[in-house]
Write a structure and sequence with these properties.
The protein has a six-stranded mixed β-sheet. The chain has a five-stranded mixed β-sheet with strand order 3-2-1-4-5, sandwiched between helices. The two termini are 37 Å apart. It is 49% helix and 18% strand. The protein has 519 residues and is α/β, with parallel strands linked by helices. It is built from 22 helices and 14 strands. InterPro entries: ATPase_NBD, GppA/Ppx_hydrolase, HD/PDEase_dom, Ppx_GppA_C, Ppx_GppA_N, PyroPPase_GppA_Ppx. Pfam families: Ppx-GppA, Ppx-GppA_III.
C-alpha cells in the first residue's frame, strides 16, 4: 500500500464466507485510523448444507452463494471499494471441491477468497471480539460456533495464549443428529457426549489456563440469548438473561423447549429465528457441553467476530507501527526460535535479501508486486531452520517445517511461497530441489527472482561474519552489475557467490560482480 493511499484513506470491504452465512462489512478508514462503517450485509446461504457428510460442496448451496456474492460485488462497485479482504472458512476448507468453487467464485464475481486455517480463524475471532471489550484483570475464553467448526481461544489482555479449532459446528452436528422431530433426553445426551469426545483434549488445554470469563460471538449464541429473553418475557417471570449475557440455566430452559417440539412447533417459540430451527439444538449442545465442562455459569454475548479481526489486521498493516511486531512477524519468530535459528546471521541475510529486492525493483530488473518483499524477508529469517533437524539437506527440512507449521496471519499461498524460497536458498531453483514440487510456469516466474535474491544474500554471509554491508544492482551499458561492499576480505563469500552466476544470468542477462572495500 503506498503512502498516498494511506494518507487519503481507503474504502475496504471485508467478506466472511461461513458455512451458514455470507457477511460483508464496508468501511472507510481515514488517515487518522478512524474507521467508519458504511454498510454491512448478511445472507444466510447455508453453503455447508450437505457438505460435511459428503466432503463436497453441493450444487444448490454453491449456486445460492454465487448469486449472493454477485449482489455483494455490486455493492462494492457502488461504494467505490479500493480493496476487498475475502476469507472462507470450514465449509470450503474441508471440501474436496473447495478450490474448484473458489475458482468459480473468482470467475463469476471477481472476489478472490483466501481459505484460512481453523487456528487462524480462531485468532481473528479472538482479536475481533477483544477490541470491543473493556480491560479485564483475568483471562477470557472466546467461543464461536459456526456451521462447520467451533473456534476456541484464551487471551489475557492482548496476548493470545491458546487457539483451537474443533470440527464441531451446528450444521455438521445437525447432519449427524437430525433434529426435525422432537429430541429425546437420551438423544440430546448422545449429542453432548459426541461433543465431549471430540473436544476433550482442547478443553483440557483451555481449562489449564483457568479463564474466568466466557465470551461467545456467533449467530447461534446470539439467537439463543435472544430466545432466553423473549421466552422469559412471555412467561412473565424475572430472568438474569439479557441479549448480552446468557446463563447456563437460561440455556437449559431453551434446550428443553426446543427438544420438546418438532421443527414446525419450534417456529412458534418466542424469539425463534426461523432460519435456525434445524441447527439451534446442535448449536446449543455444543455451547452447553463446553460451559459445563469448564464450569462457566454464563456466557457473555458479542456481535463481533471474524470480520472485525480481519479489519483490525488490515488497519494494523495500513498504519504499520515500526516499534511493534506484527502477527506475521510473531509467527515467524516463534517458529524460528523454536528451531533455535542463528538470529544474527538470519537477520543479516534477510536485510541483504530485501536490499537486493529493493534495488532490483528500482532498476526495473524485478517487476513483481511490492508485497513480495515482506514474504522474502520472512523466508530469509526462516531459511536455515532445517538445521534443527540436520545440516544435510537442511533446505529441504526448512521447506518441510515452514510448510507444515501453523503460520498465523499468513495465507496458505504465502506459507507455500516462503517454504519454496527456503527450499531454493542454497543453489537457487535447481532440478534436485524442485523434485516433488509442483510449480506452474507462472509460479516459476514468480519465485525465480525471489529465490535468487535469497541465494545471493545467503552466499554473501556464508561465513556468518556479517562482513558484507551492502549489495545492490546497477544497470550499465554492458549489462547488469552486482555491486558488493564489504568491511573485511570475503574469500568464502566470493567463492560461494560463483554458484549464483548462472541463475543471475537467467534472470538478468549478462551480469558482472564488483567488490568494493576490503572484499
Amino acid at each position: 500500500m503506498d503512502a498516498e493511499q494511506s494518507a487519503s484513506g481507503r474504502t475496504v470491504a471485508i467478506l466472511d464466507m461461513g458455512s451458514n452465512s455470507l457477511r460483508m462489512i464496508v468501511v472507510r478508514i481515514g488517515s487518522n485510523r478512524v474507521t467508519s462503517v458504511l454498510n454491512q450485509v448478511k445472507q444466510m446461504v447455508r453453503l455447508g448444507e450437505g457438505a460435511f457428510g459428503e466432503h463436497r460442496l453441493q450444487p444448490e448451496p454453491m449456486r445460492r452463494t454465487v448469486a449472493a456474492l454477485r449482489g455483494f460485488a455490486g455493492m462494492c462497485r457502488s461504494y467505490g471499494v479500493d480493496e476487498v479482504v475475502a476469507l472462507a472458512t470450514a465449509a470450503v476448507r474441508d471440501a474436496e471441491n473447495g478450490q474448484e468453487f473458489m475458482d468459480e467464485v473468482r470467475r463469476e464475481t471477481g472476489f478472490d477468497f483466501t481459505v484460512i486455517s481453523g487456528r487462524e480463524e480462531a485468532r481473528l475471532i479472538c482479536r475481533g471480539v477483544s477490541v470491543a471489550l473493556e480491560p479485564f484483570a483475568g483471562k477470557r475464553m472466546f467461543i464461536d460456533i459456526g456451521g462447520g467448526s467451533t473456534e476456541l481461544s484464551v487471551a489475557e489482555g492482548s496476548d493470545i495464549l491458546e487457539l483451537e479449532s474443533l470440527k464441531l459446528g451446528a450444521v455438521r452436528l445437525a447432519g449427524l443428529f437430525p433434529c426435525s422431530s422432537p429430541v429425546s433426553a437420551q438423544r440430546y445426551a448422545q449429542m453432548q457426549q459426541y461433543v465431549r469426545d471430540h473436544a476433550v483434549l482442547p478443553l483440557q488445554r483451555m481449562e489449564a489456563l483457568s479463564p474466568s470469563e466466557l465470551v461467545g460471538s456467533s449467530g447461534t449464541i446470539q439467537s439463543l440469548a435472544e430466545m432466553a429473553v423473549a421466552m422469559a418475557r412471555e412467561a412473565g417471570g424475572k430472568t438474569a438473561d439479557t441479549p448480552e449475557r446468557l446463563s447456563i440455566e437460561g440455556l437449559k430452559r431453551i434446550v428443553k423447549a426446543l427438544c420438546e417440539r418438532n421443527e414446525e412447533g419450534r417456529m412458534a417459540l418466542p424469539g425463534m429465528n426461523p432460519r435456525r430451527t434445524g441447527i439451534l439444538i446442535p448449536g446449543a449442545a455444543i455451547l452447553q457441553t463446553i460451559m459445563e465442562e469448564l464450569n462457566f455459569g454464563s456466557v457473555r454475548v458479542s456481535a463481533r467476530g471474524l470480520r472485525d479481526g480481519a479489519l483490525a489486521d488490515y488497519v494494523e498493516s495500513m498504519f504499520e507501527d515500526k516499534g511493534r511486531i506484527s502477527v506475521k512477524g510473531q509467527s515467524v519468530l516463534r517458529l524460528a526460535r523454536l528451531c533455535r535459528f542463528e538470529e544474527i546471521h538470519s537477520h543479516h541475510v534477510a536485510n541483504l535479501a530485501v536490499m537486493l529486492f529493493d534495488h532490483a525493483r528500482a532498476q526495473g530488473l524485478y517487476r513483481g508486486p511490492a508485497r513480495m518483499r515482506e514474504l522474502l524477508y520472512y523466508a530469509a529469517l526462516l531459511h536455515d531452520i532445517g538445521i534443527f533437524l540436520s545440516f544435510t539437506r537442511h533446505n529441504a527440512h526448512s521447506h518441510y517445517l515452514i510448510r507444515n507449521s501453523e503460520m498465523l496471519g499468513f495465507t496458505e499461498k504465502e506459507v507455500s511461497l516462503m517454504a519454496l524460497l527456503a527450499l531454493f536458498h542454497r543453489y537457487g531453483y535447481t532440478k534436485k530441489d524442485r523434485a516433488g514440487v509442483e510449480l506452474s510456469a507462472e509460479g516459476l516466474e514468480e519465485i525465480r527472482p525471489l529465490a535468487l535474491f535469497l541465494s545471493l544474500a545467503e552466499a554473501l554471509d556464508k561465513s556468518h561474519r556479517q562482513a558484507v554491508t551492502k549489495a545492490f544492482f546497477e544497470r550499465r551499458e554492458e549489462g547488469v552489475a552486482l555491486i558488493i561492499r564489504a568491511k573485511a576480505p570475503c574469500p568464502v563469500e566470493q567463492e560461494r557467490l560463483k554458484r549464483c552466476f548462472k541463475a543471475m544470468e537467467k534472470c538478468f542477462g549478462k551480469t558482472q560482480v564488483l567488490w568494493q572495500g576490503e572484499g
